[in-house]
Write a structure and sequence with these properties.
mainly alpha; elongated
Length: 105
């Protein structure tokens, strides 16, 4: 019992304990801030991966459009609704749901 009291009254143990408490809980870069930053980093890495895949897909599409005339024609027909002289193009728009305001007549 006396040796444990002596151990905790040691100035080095007190200084080490104070330093650990200061670094873990009081400092502006405490453990909670570090954990939050780790979560943000993980989310940003996922976002980076998504955008890198989008860039790769866009580069592939650009390469197809520059080198393949069939792909260029398909893109023009889908995106800009272009047609040949003897064709008719029908655009089917999705039906928009209307919300009732509660007034029934």
């Amino acid at each position: 019992m006396l040796s444990t009291i002596k151990f905790f009254r040691n100035k080095y143990i007190i200084a080490l304990t104070a330093f650990i408490v200061l670094m873990l809980f009081i400092d502006h870069n405490d453990i909670f801030v570090q954990m939050d930053r780790q979560k943000q980093l993980k989310a940003l890495l996922i976002s980076k991966n998504y955008y890198q895949q989008q860039i790769d897909q866009t580069k592939k599409n650009l390469s197809d459009l520059q080198n393949n005339s069939a792909a260029l024609e398909k893109y023009a027909r889908e995106k800009y609704l272009l047609k040949k002289d003897n064709e008719d193009v029908f655009v089917v728009a999705p039906q928009i749901e209307q919300k009732n305001s509660g007034n029934k007549q």
